[in-house]
Design a protein that fits this description.
Strand order of the largest sheet: 1-5-19-7-16-20-21-23-22
CATH architecture of the largest domain: Sandwich
Largest sheet: 9 strands, mixed
CATH class of the largest domain: Mainly Beta
Number of domains: 2
Strand content: 35-45%
Number of helices: 2
Shape: globular
Radius of gyration: 19 Å
Order of helices and strands: EEEEEEEEEEEEEEEEEEEEEHHEE
Mean pLDDT: 97
Number of strands: 23
Bound molecules: calcium ion
Structural class: mainly beta
CATH topology of the largest domain: Jelly Rolls
């Protein structure tokens, strides 16, 4: 088993990332992670107005995966996510969907015990997830921004028992991850979730075939995950890819696949608050297979 400690982390996914560990396809790797605020919020008196933003969104890694080359796909099977017993949620003026209304920065500490996140008196079932997970890209992209390489997708379905497929751009893939959340709802409206440190156990594999955007496989469905500055643009790209996959899997004319999409494909919001917005397009496995998403072109 390979362990990458949390002191080995990056703040951008770019062409100059230097691997800190190496794995073969099929290897199991543990990534220890720091929370998205760089562990700088220690109490409810600390707010994001007072933190060093150069230490925000650390992603542990990167991991070099043997055989991961440009034009292939890195499969990351998420075996286990452990989170610490204490998380933080923050908001601030001009942050989140209603940032224009927020007058002062505010922090809440959340205790996490026995699968429950305690927000004041309110108990919320924990659902640990990975906010930032991605690979090296041809341009330098801060870890706080999502894109084709993954990154800060803040998609609450990226959790234990799922497999994330990422397009590979650079040799070795160079996988890094961080920004665990003990729980987060779709949208992440106030700008943060229950931000927490922890560790993630994954199994990595390399597949032949090209992907345009990250793809998540759950027990019952595939989700194309698309991020763009404008929500409408993200939706359009995701729907195009989804229709392509439906056409390929069911051997349909494009117009028929478009109509089928309207019947069986859900468009969902992952997050609305990062530098690019993230949507996901859900297609139940009944109508599509993994192969339908590979080697398709956006037109
Ligand atoms: Ca995040």
């Amino acid at each position: 088993m390979i362990l990458i400690s949390r002191d080995k982390h990056v703040y951008s996914f770019g062409p100059n990332m230097k691997p800190v560990a190496k794995a073969n396809p099929g290897d199991v790797v543990i990534f220890e992670t720091i929370d998205a605020l760089g562990g700088q919020i220690k109490s409810e008196k600390d707010t994001i107005a007072h933190i060093d933003f150069s230490r925000v969104n650390p992603a542990t890694g990167p991991l070099y995966v043997v055989g991961a080359e440009r034009g292939k796909v890195l499969a990351v099977e998420i075996l286990d996510i452990e989170v610490a017993e204490r998380g933080v949620i923050v908001t601030a003026p001009n942050a989140g969907v209603l940032g224009d209304i927020v007058r002062e920065p505010k922090t809440r500490i959340c205790k996490i015990n026995d699968g429950i996140v305690q927000f004041g008196e309110i108990k919320i079932p924990a659902k640990p997830m990975i906010g930032v997970i991605g690979v090296a890209y041809d341009e330098e992209i801060p870890t706080g921004t999502p894109g084709k390489h993954g990154g800060n997708m803040d998609t609450n379905l990226i959790t234990e028992g799922t497999t994330l497929y990422l397009p590979v751009f650079r040799e070795g893939g160079l996988l890094a991850m961080g920004d665990l959340h003990a729980v987060m709802a779709d949208g992440e409206v106030c700008v943060s979730a229950c931000e927490v440190s922890g560790s993630v156990k994954v199994r990595v594999n390399v597949l032949d075939g090209k992907l345009e955007w990250p793809l998540l496989e759950t027990a019952n469905a595939y989700y194309l995950i698309v991020s763009k500055e404008k929500l409408d643009d993200a939706i359009k790209e995701g729907v195009k890819l989804g229709v392509n996959a439906l056409a390929k899997a069911n051997n349909l004319e494009w117009d028929d696949a478009y109509m089928l999409a309207s019947l069986v494909m859900d468009v969902q919001i992952s997050q609305l608050v990062d530098p690019a917005k993230t949507i996901r397009v859900k297609i139940p496995k009944k109508y599509v297979n993994l192969d339908a998403f590979l080697n398709t072109e956006v037109f």
